[in-house]
Every structure is written in C-alpha cells, then in structure tokens.
C-alpha cells in the first residue's frame, strides 16, 4: 500500500475517533454537540484547555480511552511517514508525482512503448530533434536508469489503457510501439487508436503476417527491422555508393541532419501560394528542395521550380548543417 493510501486510511480513522468522542461525551456527560466536539478535540489533540464541567467517573474513563486511542493513531501516522522516508519511498512518490504533473502538461508529444533496442534508437532520434517524449517501460531497472537521465517515463505495461492514459495518450501526436511481441503491439495499436483518433501510430513488427493486421488495427506505418536490415545489406552489394551516401545523410557525425522537413504553414504568410522559385532557398541558404509533399499526401521527387506552396504541403530540403541553420534563421 502506498503512503498516500496509508495516510488517507489514518485520516479516516481520525474522523471515526472524533465521531466516537463526540457521541461518547453526548451520551455519557449529556453534553451538547458543540461541547462534546470541544471536549473531543482538546482530548485528542492534548492541548490541555480547561474542561466545560467536572467529569464523572465514567467520563474520566472514556477520556482515558480516547487519549489512548488517539495516541495509538498518532504513533501509526509517525510510523508510516518514518518508514517511507527511511526506505526512500516517500521521496520516490513525490518525484513520481512531479513527473506525472509534467507529463499531464504535455501537448503534441511522442509516446514510445518499450525501451528495447528499437525504442532506445527512437528515443535518441527524438532527443536529437528536441521532440518531447514519454517512455512506457515495464522493467523497473530501465525506468530508474531513464529517470536518472532526466527522461519522462511511466512504469507499467503499455497494453494497459490506464498506463497509456498516464503517458498522456489523449494529448499526444505520435505513438511509437516497439515491444518485441507482435501480439502486444497489436493490442496497443487497437487501444491507442480508440483513445486518440488523430494519433499517428508507428508500430514494430517481426512477422510478415502481423504487418497487415497492424495496419487494419490502425497503425499508420509498420516497420519490420529484420526485413529492413536484410534489404539494406543487399543494397550495399548492388548499389554500395548510393546507399553509403544516403546513410551519410542520416547517421551521426559530420553530416548530421542534412535532410529537413519544412511545413509550408510554418513559413511567413507572404510565401503561401507562391512557388518554390519565389523562396529562392538555393541562393539565400545554399539548401536544395529535393522533395515536395502535397496537401493530399502525394510525394513529388525533385519538384519543379514553379510548384505552388499551398497550405498543408511540406518541403523536403537537403543541405549541410550550417546551411540548415541558416535556413532556420531566415524562415
């Protein structure tokens, strides 16, 4: 039982003690409700104020009983607090409460279910792009490690709807489901889609048969790491230079973050309904537009310069780190 529940139980018992005291004085001494409440409070609190009237032998015995009862209750409360402080639970509960408050305040964050190999890589990428994220992990040791690294984390089973709610599923924009079990991933996708219709869900899958099921369940994208790995290795044999160049654009190192996505709606309003040519990115920043996503989610590779920048569309830009930085400064 948590310290909060134990203290709540103690206050319930305190209320019962007060009720017993009031009724006892009203019956034994014939006091009014106010006088009986006064006698009970000064007896239970041991403040030592004067009595309303001399007590009868029965009243004195009842007062002794009430003092012993209240002293036992105080002893129980002190024991609960001291035990939790000594074990560290009290501090942990305060820390978790503070973290939960932070999670509840998030809007548009990403939830990562499972801190295994794939979950760890996903979190690293999210941090790199300063994306707010919450990790759901069932392993207590991993949770403690994540907390030490100042990550927002929820301890629990991601297949539990209550755990998803604690991670702020209703206010999240994205969900990455990276558990090793396809069955668990399927269950999470089903639940999450019901809890947040607008959520972008990306799920991991191990078996080919799970791919279609996860898509039907509501996953926007399904990633199969094993298939990607094999395909990547074969590509390094067939087209090694192309693959190494693409890897260079995404791996950590000198060429980190050379590809960026620009939401047209985030550009100054003066550029809405203008063309890519009007942006003049190449001259102003050195970056090149290599892709365009229409407001109908169609992709155009190497778009024409006269392509219109409509609301809801996106640009895929290629550039060196210093060029990307200049782009962000200008636009």
Total helical elements: 14
Strand order of the largest sheet: 3-2-1-4-5-6
Main sheet properties: 6 strands, parallel
Topology, number of strands:
10
Pattern of helices and strands: HHHHEHEHEHEHEHEHHEHHEEEH
Q: What is the overall pLDDT average? A: 86
Query: Which range does the strand content fall in?
Result: 5-15%
Structural class: alpha/beta
Shape: elongated
Helix content: 40-55%
Report the span from N to C terminus: 54 Å
Radius of gyration: 32 Å
Low-confidence stretches: none
Outline of this structure?
The protein has 331 residues and is an alpha/beta fold. The protein is built from 14 helices and 10 strands.
Describe this structure in words.
The structure is a single chain. The chain has helices spanning 3-28, 33-45, 57-87, 89-104, 117-128, 140-148, 161-166, 182-195, 208-217, 225-238, 240-250, 276-279, 281-284, 321-330; strands at 110-113, 133-137, 152-155, 174-177, 200-204, 221-223, 259-263, 288-293, 299-301, 314-318. The model has no long low-confidence stretch (mean pLDDT 86). It contains 14 helices and ten strands. α1 packs antiparallel against α3 (57-87) and α10 (225-238) packs across α11 (240-250). α9 (208-217) links the parallel β5 and β6. Helix content is 54%, strand content 13%. The protein is of the alpha/beta class and 331 residues long.
List the keywords:
6-stranded parallel beta sheet; 331 residues; 14 helices; alpha/beta
What's the helix and strand layout?
Layout: H1 3-28, H2 33-45, H3 57-87, H4 89-104, E1 110-113, H5 117-128, E2 133-137, H6 140-148, E3 152-155, H7 161-166, E4 174-177, H8 182-195, E5 200-204, H9 208-217, E6 221-223, H10 225-238, H11 240-250, E7 259-263, H12 276-279, H13 281-284, E8 288-293, E9 299-301, E10 314-318, H14 321-330
Parallel strand pairs: 1-2, 1-4, 2-3, 4-5, 5-6
Antiparallel strand pairs: 7-10, 8-9, 8-10
Helix pairs in contact: 1-2, 1-3, 2-3, 8-9, 10-11
């Amino acid at each position: 039982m948590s310290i909060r529940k134990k203290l709540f139980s103690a206050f319930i018992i305190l209320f019962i003690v007060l009720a017993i005291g009031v009724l006892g004085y009203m019956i034994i001494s014939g006091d009014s409700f106010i006088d009986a409440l006064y006698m009970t409070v000064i007896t239970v609190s041991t403040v030592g104020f004067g009595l309303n009237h001399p007590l009868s032998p029965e009243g004195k015995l009842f007062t002794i009983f009430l003092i012993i009862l209240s002293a036992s209750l105080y002893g129980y409360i002190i024991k609960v607090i001291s035990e939790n402080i000594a074990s560290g639970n009290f501090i942990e509960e305060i820390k978790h409460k503070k973290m939960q408050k932070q999670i509840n305040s998030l809007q548009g964050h990403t939830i990562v279910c499972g801190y295994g190999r794939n979950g760890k890589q996903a979190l690293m990428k999210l941090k790199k792009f300063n994306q707010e994220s919450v990790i759901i992990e069932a392993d207590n040791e991993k949770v403690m490690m994540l907390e030490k690294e100042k990550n927002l984390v929820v301890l629990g089973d991601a297949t539990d709807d209550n755990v998803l709610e604690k991670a702020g599923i209703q206010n999240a924009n994205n969900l990455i489901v990276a558990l090793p079990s396809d069955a668990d991933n399927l269950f999470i996708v089903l639940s999450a889609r019901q809890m947040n219709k607008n959520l972008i869900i990306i799920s991991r899958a191990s078996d080919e048969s799970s791919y279609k099921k996860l898509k039907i369940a509501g996953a926007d994208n399904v990633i199969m790491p094993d298939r990607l790995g094999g395909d990547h290795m074969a590509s390094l044999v067939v087209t090694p230079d192309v693959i190494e160049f693409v890897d260079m654009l995404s791996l950590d190192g000198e060429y980190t973050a050379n590809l960026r996505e620009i939401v047209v709606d985030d550009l100054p309003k003066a550029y809405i309904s203008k063309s890519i040519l009007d942006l003049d990115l190449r001259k102003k920043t050195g970056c090149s537009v290599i892709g365009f996503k229409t407001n109908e989610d169609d992709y155009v590779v190497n778009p024409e310069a006269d392509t219109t920048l409509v609301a809801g569309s996106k640009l895929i830009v290629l550039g060196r780190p210093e060029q990307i930085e200049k782009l962000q400064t200008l636009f």
